[in-house]
Amino acid sequence: MAPFYDLDPKHTDPARMKREREKAKKLRSSNWWKQLVAKGECHYCSEKFSPKELTMDHIVPLARGGTSTQGNLVPSCRPCNERKQLETPAEKLLREMASK
Question: How many structural domains are present in the chain?
């Protein structure tokens, strides 16, 4: 069963989502981002990848109120990014603790 995420309409407003995605697109072409992906490391699993294999992930997802800022964006491998979905760091920690 897929997890349920309570989404606030003010966070999922199409105009807000478009603005945040445009900000992320600009950051993707910045030297800051290029230096991060050049390291070739996934933020979540710490495995090494080529820069082209890394995706841009919002730590706090846009749909959950996250923003496209340097403090909320990390390089992630595709499997980690897909596994994370709309999860926040706190939810990930709680899930991991519950599985122990």
Answer: 1
CA distances from 93 to 42, 84, 88, 90, 99 (A): 17, 12, 9, 5, 10
Q: Residue 42 corresponds to which tokens in the numbers above?
A: 């996934």
Is residue 32 in some structural domain?
yes
Is residue 79 assigned to a domain?
yes
Residues 6+ apart with CB under 8 A from 46: none
Asked if residue 61 lies in contact with residue 29, where contact means CB atoms within 8 angstroms, the answer is: no
Instruction: Give the pLDDT of residue 12.
Output: 87
* Residue 92, domain member (yes or no): yes
Residues in the chain: 100
Containing structural domain, residue 72: 28-98
Residue 63 placed within a domain: yes
Instruction: Give the pLDDT confidence of 37-72 residue by residue, as tens digits.
Output: 999 999 999 999 999 999 999 999 999 999 999 999
- pTM assigned to the model: 0.87
